[in-house]
Specification:
14% strand; 12 strands; Beta-lactamase; disordered N terminus; 12 helices; alpha+beta
Length: 390
């Protein structure tokens, strides 16, 4: 009898111990299902990379090259789009720490004559996307990548395009890539150096980011998946090489999942900024109009989760690729998702990416916060009305 009781106790203990492992396998299967769903919806290839307290795992679906069927590379490079913004913001905040710039500095002081009403726009508002400036990507010439990816732009010409669209008053959150083009120009004006060099010396090298660059040439060097775009309704078109000048400081960097995670680790551990400034990127945040990404800090987005874990990072999209990178404030757990399809008015892959990230952190798909009746069904409409969200 005592032996039977002991066996039952051991059995119950083994079942109990097995539950977390089984739950983890189920979560991974659910994440895989979402990646497979992206491929079924037309994404050529997608990779999700998780780093969790030094441990790492990855899931993938699709291929790197549709024509050859080549497999997706391990830690391949891709255009990270607006994941660029936190890196540029880091350089700006380094200049603030050095006393060469302040968050209260106005455009009229640091870049006079470039933007109407520049004396009323502060550096902090550029970082927050509360400058009131319009987004150059809203111009008609940016409606189809075929019309602009091989044009050569200067940062000043991008700002002039935005000026032609008219600007609003500062103070209200409105996402605009123009803000970060101006921040890139500010970095160059203050340092008297190219932004690409400043990023390399101030961010990429100290963080150990070995394959990251702000390119001037059209190529994605090294192992990578071919990029594509689709303007719905319409066919999918291969697009890996392009003139990156239209993206520049707003969404032009090429990197890898491993390097993106190295950046966030370096930022969280004080290697790039003093802790108080790195923390301010998150704590100095404004409210947005989106329940999935409800607040925007100094170049970083907050992503809401169903379990209350607050994630920070950024979303991104550029002709060829779509990206997500979110993690905890201490960067001990991070998720990077890279897709080889840019489809700005189709919310399907965004829905899958949101669910996959929430599954990894919370063990369930995303749903609206308690008391918020809005569901993820808003995303396709929101994307269609926010074509500049790169």
């Amino acid at each position: 009898m005592r032996s039977t009781s002991r066996l039952i106790s051991v059995f119950v203990l083994l079942v109990w111990l097995a539950q977390p492992a089984r739950a983890a396998i189920d979560v991974k299967a659910e994440i895989q299902a979402h990646l497979d769903g992206m491929v079924a919806a037309g994404v050529p290839g997608v990779v999700l990379t998780v780093r969790d307290n030094g441990r790492a795992w990855r899931a993938e679906a699709g291929v790197a090259d549709v024509a050859t069927g080549a497999p997706l590379p391990v830690d391949g490079r891709f255009r990270i789009a607006s994941l660029t913004k936190p890196m540029v913001a880091t350089v700006v905040l380094q200049l603030v720490h050095e006393g060469r710039l302040t968050l209260e500095s106005t455009l009229g002081t640091v870049l006079p004559g470039l933007v109407p009403g520049a004396e009323h726009v502060r550096v902090e508002q550029l970082l927050h996307n509360t400058s009131g400036l319009n987004d150059y990507v809203n111009a008609p010439e940016f409606a189809d990548p075929a019309g602009y990816v091989w044009r050569r732009y200067t940062p000043e010409s991008l700002v002039r395009i935005a000026n032609g669209l008219g600007h609003g008053a500062p103070g209200t959150w409105k996402y605009a890539n123009t803000n970060f083009v101006l921040l890139g120009l500010i970095v160059e004006r203050v340092t008297r150096d190219d932004l690409a060099d400043q990023l390399r010396h101030r961010v990429f090298q100290p963080a150990g980011m070995r394959v990251t660059e702000l390119p001037a040439l059209p190529f994605v060097w090294g192992p990578h998946a071919s990029g594509h775009y689709r303007i719905d309704p319409g066919p999918r078109t291969e697009l890996t090489e392009l003139d990156p000048s239209f993206a520049w400081a707003a969404y032009g960097i090429v990197s890898s999942a491993g390097d993106i995670q190295r950046f966030h680790t370096a930022l969280a551990t004080g290697r790039l900024l003093p802790r108080e400034l790195a923390d301010r990127m998150r704590t100095d945040a404004v409210t947005t109009t989106n329940p999935v990404w409800p607040r925007y800090g100094l170049g970083v987005e907050e992503m809401s989760t169903t379990c209350g874990v607050r994630l920070w990072g950024h979303t991104g999209a550029i002709p060829g690729y779509s990206t997500f990178s979110f993690g905890t404030a201490d960067a001990r757990k991070q998720v990077v998702v890279s897709s080889s399809l840019f489809s700005p008015k189709d919310g399907t892959q965004v829905l899958h990416m949101v669910h996959a990230v929430n599954l990894e952190f919370c063990g369930e798909p995303w749903r609206p916060p308690t008391g918020n009746a809005q569901s993820l069904s808003f995303i396709p409409t929101w994307l269609a009305s926010n074509p500049s969200r790169s």
